[in-house]
Design goal:
elongated; about 45% helix; six-stranded parallel sheet; 12 strands; six-stranded mixed sheet; alpha/beta; about 325 residues
């Protein structure tokens, strides 16, 4: 079996992230440590993919981005913004869809990585070891996933969720539901539960499900059964499914149930009723992810010898889908 980067780290007596940097940004590793890593790698027969590295000996002029679901309306504005930013730096952008499955993501990376100078992975399903192996082979930035040693753009929902919970409490809501459509390690539930507990409000979690419109349709019936007066959905797509099904059930929004989404997609502002949601700015994501990848390609991510974590905030956008809790 092929030697892994973790085996090299164990043999060299250092962290996996240090091994990764020794191959991708050697000037960021102490010479003595780097030599120890190279000796261990040689002894074990490990080397980053030489074909992939040689292909990047000359610039392709292209950046890659792999997203979970190209049909989700959250992503097109981000793709458009990152294309505009990359174009100003002389790059084009190649975008692919992993459909949130590990095997599809691996196949997509294999196809895309040979054609780009660097790669942005959004909410990757891959293991830490696989991601560190990839980071040893090419410039890599991850979004909404934390792996020590890899540059990261982190979306913080703390401010937006806190504002959403305060918004519901001010309207008199006490029984709320969170529709979870995340994998465990990416769950938004932790921030939501903490915010509700801080304001002494109860919340029931449904899921985890797939982050799709159909999830909201399914969960809406359960929301009605729980007697909840407010719903926070994993994203706008799920929230729109809830709106659709509650209307079909004859449940008034916001008269009987208030609904909040996350992302602030275009559909949120044109739905009926318009959807209260937590906004994440696509322009800011594009700027931070694109700039961080270009810095990583240049061998200076963050400029301080570490692997930076760049955080993006959020805020509540109140619309017509939230209102006072029913008194009956």
């Amino acid at each position: 079996m092929a030697v892994t980067i973790r085996e090299v780290a164990s043999a060299a007596g250092c962290s996996v992230s240090t091994v990764s940097r020794a191959f991708t940004a050697p000037d960021q590793v102490q010479p003595r440590t780097r030599q120890r890593i190279l000796d261990a790698a040689a002894k074990l027969g490990y080397a980053p993919n030489p074909a992939a590295r040689s292909l990047r000996g000359g610039s392709t002029g292209t950046l890659g981005m792999i997203i979970p679901d190209i049909a989700n309306p959250f992503f097109p504005p981000i793709v458009k913004a990152i294309q505009a930013r990359a174009r100003r730096q002389g790059y084009t952008v190649l975008v692919a869809d992993s459909d949130e499955h590990e095997t599809d993501e691996l196949a997509t990376i294999a196809a895309v990585s040979k054609r780009v100078d660097g790669l942005i992975l959004w909410a990757s399903t891959l293991s830490e070891d696989r991601l560190l192996e990839l980071a040893a082979q090419m410039p890599l930035v991850i979004v909404n996933r934390h792996v020590p040693g890899i540059p990261e753009v982190r979306i913080s929902l703390t401010a937006g969720i806190t504002q959403a919970v305060e918004h519901l409490r001010a309207y008199g809501h006490r029984r709320c539901v969170f529709i979870n459509a995340s994998r465990d390690e990416l769950s938004r539930g932790k921030s939501i539960h903490e915010s509700f507990e801080a304001l002494d409000l109860s919340i029931v979690e449904l899921g985890p499900y797939e982050p799709r419109f159909e999830t909201g349709v399914h969960a809406a019936t359960l929301v009605a059964a729980h007697g909840a007066t407010a719903v926070i959905a994993h994203n706008d797509l799920v929230a729109l499914g809830v709106l659709h099904q509650l209307s079909a059930l004859g449940v008034s929004v916001p008269g009987d149930v208030s609904v909040i989404g996350i992302d602030d997609t275009l559909l949120a502002s044109v739905s009926t009723p318009s959807l209260t949601t937590i906004r994440i700015d696509p322009e800011e994501i594009a700027a931070k992810a694109g700039d961080l990848l270009l810095e990583t390609i240049a061998g200076r991510p963050g400029g301080d010898g570490g692997s930076p974590v760049v955080e993006i905030g959020s805020r509540l956008v109140p619309r017509a889908s939230t209102g006072p809790a029913p008194t009956h």
